[in-house]
Amino acid sequence: MAGPSQPLTSLPIGQAATVTEIRVPPQSRPRLMEMGLLVGTPVELVRFAPLGDPVEIKVRGYHLTLRKHEAEQILVRV
User: Domains (ranges, CATH) in the chain?
Assistant: First the structure.
């Protein structure tokens, strides 16, 4: 059984999950959609930069870097 949704940034490194909700501002949504980040998409947290920002994730077979405040607004379920 799947757990509750949580921010993408709360996953341990290497953990895979599925996007359940994207709470970014409307002006940021098209950019994320163009990069393939949609509700229902599997993602994996790859790493945080040395100071914790940005965040690198793996989505649809490629690596994507997001600002930490954006990644915090993407909810996922393990």
Answer: 6-77 (2.30.30.90)
